[in-house]
Amino acid sequence: MAIPNKPVLDKAFRMIESRRGALLAELQALCRQPSIAAQNVGMAETAEMVRRMMEDAGLKAEIVPTGGHPVVYGELDVGAPRTLLFYNHYDVQPPEPLDEWTHPPFGAEIHDGVLYARGVSDNKGNFAARIQAVRLLREAAGGLPVNVKFLVEGEEEIGSGHLGEFIIANRDRLGADGAVWESGYKDAQGRPGLYFGVKGILYVELRVRGANRDLHSAGAAVIENPAWRLVWLLNTLKGPDERVLLDGFYDDVLPPSEEDLVWARGSTPEEEAARLAGLGIKQYLLGLTGLDLAVKSLFQPTCTICGLTAGYQGEGSKTVLPKVASAKLDFRLVPKQDPQRVLASLRDHLRRQGCGDFEVIVHGAEPAGRTSLNAPIAKVLIETAREAYGVEPSVSPTQAGSGPMHWLVDELGIPTGSIGVGWHRANNHAPDESIRVDDYFENMRHVALLLVRFAEV
Fold first, then answer.
1. Could you report the per-residue pLDDT of 41-57, keeping only the tens digit for each?
2. Of 109, 225, 228, 447, which one's alpha carbon is 20 to 30 angstroms from that of 116?
3. Is 377 within 8 Å of 371 (Cβ atoms)?
């Protein structure tokens, strides 16, 4: 339907303001419901809450079973020429370590205008802002100017293992002219961040075994220690110059294009100093700053040790020779890098280092995804961000994090961009995850504006 833009948007914005209390309570209820995919806690209950929120917004919604946690899918076809798809996820990271939270992880408490909860930034706040924008704009206008679809999965935090299964089985009903990705954050200067790509990932666990039980550490004189073997192997994966040492690792890494460099302007010295101070560190790796820092962060792959486990780690001492040692690693990958090819190179590296007996457990593997900033969804997101926030947004051709965007961009051919409710102290995946309440409602207004403007492209 054609919408007289300003009167309807003004009405929708007034409705957002007048219903702040109720809208905020709905978000708090969603955040108070745990949905920890890794532990299978509260997943069915949260999927049902998401389905009900979609139906309340006027969508036809259903919970679609997969080989893992279900997908919640909803759509509203108003017969418009254009369709906008929203991708989100309802699962969250485990809240541990619990003793480092200053507010209950599933309490959804508000202090000084900040709402604290596991998953409020990643990703329940973004989903709630979007579905409420659809609901209120539809109510204000008596309809919508675009068809909308919501794909909300339950396994993003554990690698989206069954998202592809859902997309392939439902390809015929997932078509759209553009998509809005799950996330977005304001920087320390209050500029909303817009992202049009993500890195790929290969997440593996390496496990090495020694004797069939823990032994007295005196046995280390004559019995191999798996922890040492693991440490020596890890030391061969990356050098002090940060170069990953797997054969062929950089063969498919492309340098950033001229367009990439235009958009990846880098942070100002003041922004970098503020972030370093907030992290309690003196400098970034290799002393990088400015554009060099941005290029390394956005366009170069990584190899990171995410966790190490071996032997006794309790209080005090215990003289023990551990029977097993393990490490969890992730490789963040850039476009053209194939995670399966990287995995094969890793296995070959282990064999050449005399570690062919190491167990390699794959916890996730997906390629990178990118959308051109010339795509209509990119242009509309940037233009509406300027209008909605009243400042020049921080636009990036991609981001350092990973996600299953390739399923939308490459498999379904849907140009995709990202904007959200987060801020520079969101603490995703960490204690005291949060959003600012005002940012939540500001983003809701932006989504309403986006729905109207995308219909005009």
1. 999 999 999 999 999 99
2. 447
3. yes
